[in-house]
Amino acid sequence: MSSGILAPSATCEKLDRTQVDARLSGCACLPSLSTIDSALRELLSADQRYTSQIAEIIRRDPSLTARLLRLVNSVYYGMSKPVRNIEEAVFYLGVRQIRQLAMVTPIIEDFQKLAEGHRFPWRQFWRHCIATALMTREITDLLQSNDAEIDYVAGLIHDVGKIVMASAFPDHFNEIYHQRAEECKDLMHLEREVLGVDHAELGAMYLRKQRLPEAFVEIVQYHHVPQAARYQANVTAAVHVADLLVRHTKIGESGNHAEVPFESWLLSPGWKQLFGHQTDAERGLSRASLNRSLERIPAILESLV
Fold first, then answer.
1. Where are the domains of the chain?
2. Is the CB of residue 227 less than 8 Å from the CB of residue 273?
3. Are 274 and 244 in contact (CB under 8 A)?
4. Stated pTM of the model
5. 23, 46, 172, 305 from 165: Cα distances, Å
6. CB count, 10 Å around CB of 39?
7. Class of the domain covering 117-305
8. Most buried among 70, 213, 266, 271, by the most CB within 10 A?
9. How far apart, in whole angstroms, are the C-alpha atoms of residue 202 and residue 141?
10. Phi, psi (deg, nearest 5) at residue 78
């Protein structure tokens, strides 16, 4: 008699870490950021930030230009008259938004190339990643954290393991995210059962091979268990909470279909780590602020993805 549980297909034999590691060696590299992006970063970090110079660099990147103009003309900013001039857009958005936008553009385009040809609602996935990045930044802002841009980038790349899985292990990816997607089973448990590692571990292994800073490796590896992080504990916890908030609100699609009940994140290890020391009144203000931020995100995403 059948148990009713689907066994992995013959092409999806569970792999050990050595086999996974060997397969990752053949996985496409993340292209280095363009010279345009590097120039923009240097300029935005300078003591004197000239709008005209920033606009000139942005003009060299049509994709970044289009995203910038869509964002500033979105309902999020509510301009009564459309902004068609890049200098004006830079003025309205501010240096911080420009910096974030400059990061989104190359990273998402690199990820799109990595995931090309693999069936998945990728546009919704990018929306989930960007929303998590935005909410991670909102959380660290609430805590007055000084983590430069690491929080935003960490939120953006937290689920890179899923992209890597689609690229390097397409049969396993299909088994997990299509054939067995409706099973009432924890996603990470299912990934370990089918592939041998979950997407968090896989993402960390990939980033380490790409020689990304160890800070990002740790955050990606532990974004579901922030209590295990040692060096970037607070940013890891912020990504953890941001991911839960975005999944609860159903902004985008992460591939994890498990429901995140209303305010369940208040019981999460990440929330307790970041906000456990606050009074009830302070936590109430924090929750209200994060809810306002969540409400604004869909309008921002319409301009970016």
1. 33-102, 117-305
2. yes
3. no
4. 0.83
5. 10, 39, 8, 22
6. 14
7. mainly alpha
8. 271
9. 29
10. 60, 40
